[in-house]
Structure to design on (175 residues):
């Protein structure tokens, strides 16, 4: 194990990103397995059709579509989180490299005034980069969440129309 702070930070950031990615994968896989189990359980049920009740096959088909979209939205959210984690790791690596360079620069033989001016410029540039990085990460998160939410919203609207049709069909007398 090295004592270099930049290397330690890079290793810790890499490990955190890998852990977050694995946790997300595990959550999606567990959720998909549970959804498949519930779908299988419902599809095995043989419920007789009764007047005023929706057709169970149609109802299960609607439920299956909901689960498929939920799974897809979870996948989009996970991929977004992975992208954010990777980019955050890159930013941390760049920052640690910058800190190392700054530390090296403080050991130069320049006058104190020249060092202070140089440090002030570096601090200003670092601040501007930090603001740009935060904005970039926020945009990545917003884009990912927006895509997943859009998928869910579209499916919800579609499902409500399907439920309405099922209810209307169930209310009609059989010919």
């Amino acid at each position: 194990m090295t004592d270099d702070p930049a290397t330690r930070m890079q290793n810790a950031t890499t490990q955190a990103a890998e852990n977050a990615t694995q946790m997300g994968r595990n959550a999606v896989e567990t959720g998909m397995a549970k959804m498949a189990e519930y779908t299988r359980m419902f599809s095995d049920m043989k419920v007789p059709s009764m007047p005023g009740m929706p057709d169970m096959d149609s109802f299960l088909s609607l439920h299956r579509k909901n689960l498929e979209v939920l799974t897809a939205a979870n996948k989009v959210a996970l991929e977004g989180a992975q992208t954010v984690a990777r980019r955050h790791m890159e930013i941390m690596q760049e920052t640690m490299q910058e800190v190392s360079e700054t530390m090296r620069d403080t050991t130069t033989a320049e006058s104190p005034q020249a060092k202070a001016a140089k440090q002030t410029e570096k601090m200003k540039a670092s601040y501007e980069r930090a603001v740009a990085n935060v904005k970039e990460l926020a945009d990545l998160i917003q884009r990912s969440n927006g895509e997943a939410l859009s998928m869910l919203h579209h499916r919800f609207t579609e499902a409500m129309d399907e439920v309405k049709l099922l209810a209307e069909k169930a209310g009609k007398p059989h010919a």
